[in-house]
Every structure is written in structure tokens, then in C-alpha cells.
Amino acid sequence: MEPEIEASLTRVVTSQDEHSHTAPPPSQTTTVPLMSDRSFWGMVSTQFLGAFNDNLYKQLMLLLAIPAAAVAATQAAETGQGTVSDIQGWATLVFSLPFVLFSGFAGYLSDRFSKTPIIVYCKVAEIAVMLLGLLAFYYFDLFGTAGTWFVLFLMGTQSSFFGPGKYGILPELFRSEDLPRANGLILMTTFLAIIFGTVLAGALKALLFSNGSAASLAWGLLVCVAIAIFGTLTSLLIRKVPAAQPKLPLTVDCFGICDDARQLLRVDVGLLGALLVGSMFWLVSGIAVPTVNRLGLWLGANETWTSVLTASIGLGIMIGALLAGLLCRKGFGDRCVTLGLSGICLCLGILGMWTSNGHLIGYTGSLTALVLLGISAAVFAIPLQVYIQDRPPSALKGRMIATMNQANFTGILISGPLYQLFEWISRLLAWPISSVFWMMGLLILPLAIFYRLNSDRPADRV
Asked: 268: phi > 0 → left, psi -120 to 50 → alpha, else beta; which?
């Protein structure tokens, strides 16, 4: 590492030690194998159930738009164009906005106090939010979509406070060599939860929506409440870690990007680059979901088989998470980032191909390409996430994870209008919706060519 970076990092750490007189988390030197660690399984279960709930609720919301979506689907199947994905863009905006607004303060709390009780309190808050969701559906005729969207905003708020504690605690609970495997398994189970949550929402809608009343879906929210309660219980399995900075003062900068984090990013170009590359990845991911939905409709698939296309990305990420964890443990983490970016570009290029007779690779080919896209995405994302978790000094991990959340969800916020721009360009040029994959590929291509992760860690660490 460059001497000036090392000296600057030392100043950051020393400054934080003046506020915190805590020793390194004792769990860093634990000899308990990861797969035998009760805290690990508590984290996996808690994250799985939270992601399951998020996607179950959001999908139930989207299912309320089925009558309008059916019309748009028919138009899309006939013309290759339509607006069926528009509501998803707005949902992404509503859910993502709290991460941009509140992640700074959430990061402050995760460093000022022990991350363990923060995780538990966030899960208790999830129970309250799901109860409000139940009421929003039950009184849908009174409050309309405003009630359900308000609850979606609260869900994003709860998740924004949960995130810094959830990711920041991993380096405090587990050894550095266990982080790739832990992240891989957590990411894999998270996408499994996304798939299961989406499928269960469809089953609940089919079971409960027979009378055509949105209020009948309120009974489905009982499932969400039960899952939130169970997730709160699993969070109690996570062992308590000491506060990173128990004397950290609350200042104005704590509500955005704190001064210590800005100083660290100014001198550690590698960490700054990882944050920017990660946010670009999430921007492209935000464009991918509505594009895949439109692709399925353009290929003439019904809503069920279109959902299968979207779920195939999650399947690929699950497979890629296991592969990335293995490669990182073998010391190939930095190369995985380059390999993953190259794979993403290749898959996007294949997905974008079309001929005068329609899509070049059809439904089956698209399904295969999307699975490979998910694998590439996981192989890229996991080493980068481990790097961002492990690189900062201990006293700054929570706020740096909050900064990562702000960067990632800023990218997701931008993805909505950018998708609309790409979709407009495709219509202007009379290109099919698959051409948007090429536009996404152009965003990733410079990263694949020029970005290289160097995971050499700072010499001075708390």
C-alpha cells in the first residue's frame, strides 16, 4: 500500500480511537467453525426471513395491478412495447428512497451502539410495519394505494436501518477467511427468499382474491406478520458484539456521509473505486428487472413464464454465490471481479440480439443466458462486498456500510428514469425491447475493460 495512504489511514484510526476505547471484537479470533457457529445461522435465518417478507409484500402490491397489467401485456405481446413495468419502477423508487435519506444516520447508530440489539430492534419494527401492512390492505377501499405504498416506504426505512448492522457485524462475528463463505451463503439464501416470497404471493393471491376485493389480501399479511415474529426470534441467536465507538458524538455529517468516511475515501482510492463500481452494478440491476419482464411479454410468454425468466436470475445468483465463495477462499477474489464483469457483458450482449423474425435465442436461450447472467453477477459482487466490509477500520465499518448502501441505492434510484430513457430510445429507433440489454452492456463494458480490484488491506487496523 502507498505510504501516504497508510499514514492517512493511521490518522483516521487514531482519531476514532480517541472516541472509542474498545478492543478489537473478540469474535475476530474465534476458533468456532463457521458452519457450527450459532450466530451465523441466526444471521442467515434473520436475513432470509426479512428478504422473504419484503418480496412477499411487494409482490402482493404488484398483483393488485393485474387488471391493468393484463391489458399492457396484451399490447406488449402484439407490438413489443407497453407499460407493464412502470409500476415496478415506482415501487423501486419508493422502497429505495429511505436508503438514500436515512442510511447515514443508520450507520452512525451501528457504530455508536452494539450492532446486535440494533438488528433485534429492526426486526421488532418489522412486526409493526407488517401489522400496518395488514391494515393497509384490509382498509384498501378507504385508503387506496396510498396506504400500501406508505407501508412500502416504511419497509424501506426499516431495511435501511437494518442494513449497516447486518453487513457491518459480519467482520465482527467471523474471521476474515470466513467472510467470503458467509457472504456467499447469505446472498444465496437471500435470493432463494426472493424466489419463494414471489411464488407465495402468487399462491396467496390465487387463494384469497376470488371475490375481487383487495381487502381479502389482508389475510395474506398474517403470513408476513408471522414471518416477522419468527425473524425476530432468530435474531436473538446472534451473539452480542461491543460497540465500535461508544463515545461517538452525533454531528450533522452523521446524517449523510460522515467526515471520517469522506477522509478515508479521499486517501483510499481502492475503497472509493469499489463503492462506485458497486453502485454502477446496482444501477444496471435496477434496469434489468423491468427489461426482463418486457422481454418475456415480447417473446409471447404469459405472466407466469415471464416471472420464471426473472426468477432465473436469482437461481443463477444462488449458484454463483457458492462458486464465488469457493474461488475467494482459494485466493482468486480479485480475479473473480474481472471475470464476473466480463461474463455480465457477454450475457447482456447475447440477450440483446434480435433478427427481423424476432429474438435470436428465444425463450429457452434467454432463460439460459439469464441464469449465466446471475452467476456472473454473484461472482463479481461477492468479492467486492467482502472487500468493502473488511477494508475499513473496525470503528468505521458500520458507517462505511451505510455509505455503501447510499451509493448502491442512489444507483437503483437512477435506474428507473434511465430505464425509461433506454426504452424511449428503443422505440425511437424502432428496435425491440431486447436492445436495452445492449445499452446496459455499454454501461458495464468500461468497467470490465479498465477496473481491477486490488484487495491489499491497510496495514493499520482497529
From this structure: beta
The CA angle 68-69-71, to the nearest 5 degrees, is 70
pLDDT, one tens digit per residue, over 180-214 is 788 778 877 887 887 778 777 777 777 776 666 66
Antiparallel, parallel or unpaired: β 354-355 and 358-359: antiparallel
Residue 359: enclosing H or E segment and its boundaries?
strand 358-359
Separation between Cα atoms, residue 77 and residue 309, nearest integer Å: 16
Give the type of residue at 208.
L
CA distances to 13, 26, 38, 261, 401 from 258, in Å = 14, 26, 33, 5, 12
295 neighbors 77 (Cβ within 8 angstroms): no
Output the nine-digit C-alpha cell for 385.
462486498
Instruction: At 7, list the grid cell.
Output: 499514514
DSSP result, 216-233 = GGHHHHHHHHHHHHHHHH
Q: Collect all residues with Cβ–Cβ distance below 8 Å to 230 and sequence separation of at least 6.
A: 49
Residues 6+ apart with CB under 8 A from 334: 383, 452, 453, 454, 455
Burial of residue 32 (number of CB atoms within 10 Å: 0-12, 13-18, 19+): middle
Q: Angle 115-138/145-168 helices, nearest 10 degrees?
A: 170
Give the dihedral sign, CA 406/416/150/60: negative
* Rounded mean pLDDT, 30-49: 85
3-state secondary structure of 460: coil
- Residue matched to cell numbers 468516511: 261
Q: Which domains does the chain have, with CATH numbers?
A: 35-245+257-450 (1.20.1250.20)
Grid coordinates representing 148 are 400500501
| pTM strictly above 0.85 | no
Question: Strand, helix or coil at 302?
Answer: coil
The answer to whether residues 401 and 164 touch, using CB atoms and an 8 Å cutoff, is yes
Residue 174, classed as helix, strand or coil, is coil
Average pLDDT over residues 389-406: 76
CB 120 within 8 A of CB 232: yes
The tens digit of pLDDT for each residue in 304-323 reads: 677 778 778 878 888 888 88
Contacts of 376 (CB under 8 A, 6+ apart): 316, 320, 339, 340, 341, 342, 343, 344, 346, 347
458 pLDDT higher than 60: no
Give the Cβ contact number of residue 72 at 10 Å: 19
CB neighbours (10 Å) of residue 330? Answer: 10
